[in-house]
């Protein structure tokens, strides 16, 4: 059952990241110019843009939710699926390294194929979401170990 949900999750992720309708005004630019104009390498630049208006109430709430929470929770399931299916990714350091590589590859593909931009803030939020998922996985794994050990000791 978990395998089927993982395949479904991957399908949705591919659609959201690479196949969804996106309209960019820089379609006539060379790839180098496109990369320059559609990349954000300044950490927290767009996050601050979305968080600041919360207190002011000056921005549509849907935009904030989609960009902040959507990016964070899009990769939350990855924090559960990866360590479940690949036992070597069961340590936080290995999981984090794997996610950093995976997210850089995804951001790079989006940029080169012009299906999105390279935004370090998206990267940060995606990694944060994956780490939340990993924490959930570890809590559940630890609970199962504790229960199993307590049943065996009885």
From TrEMBL:
Pfam families: VanZ. Residues 6-138 form the VanZ-like domain. Keywords: Membrane, Transmembrane, Transmembrane helix. InterPro entries: Teicoplanin_resist-assoc (IPR053150), VanZ-like (IPR006976). This is VanZ family protein. The chain crosses the membrane at residues 6-27, 68-86, 92-111, 123-140.
């Amino acid at each position: 059952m978990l395998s089927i949900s993982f395949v479904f999750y991957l399908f949705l992720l591919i659609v959201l990241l690479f196949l969804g309708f996106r309209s960019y005004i820089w379609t006539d630019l060379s790839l180098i110019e496109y990369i320059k104009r559609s990349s954000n390498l300044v950490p927290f630049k767009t996050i601050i843009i979305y968080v600041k208006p919360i207190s002011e109430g000056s921005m549509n709430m849907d935009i904030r939710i989609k960009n902040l929470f959507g990016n964070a929770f899009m990769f939350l399931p990855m924090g559960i699926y990866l360590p479940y299916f690949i036992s070597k990714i069961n340590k936080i350091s290995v999981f984090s390294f794997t996610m950093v590589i995976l997210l850089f590859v995804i951001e790079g593909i989006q940029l080169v194929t012009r299906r999105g931009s390279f935004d370090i803030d998206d990267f940060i939020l995606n990694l944060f979401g994956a780490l939340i998922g990993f924490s959930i996985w570890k809590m559940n794994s630890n609970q199962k170990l504790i229960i199993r050990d307590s049943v065996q000791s009885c």
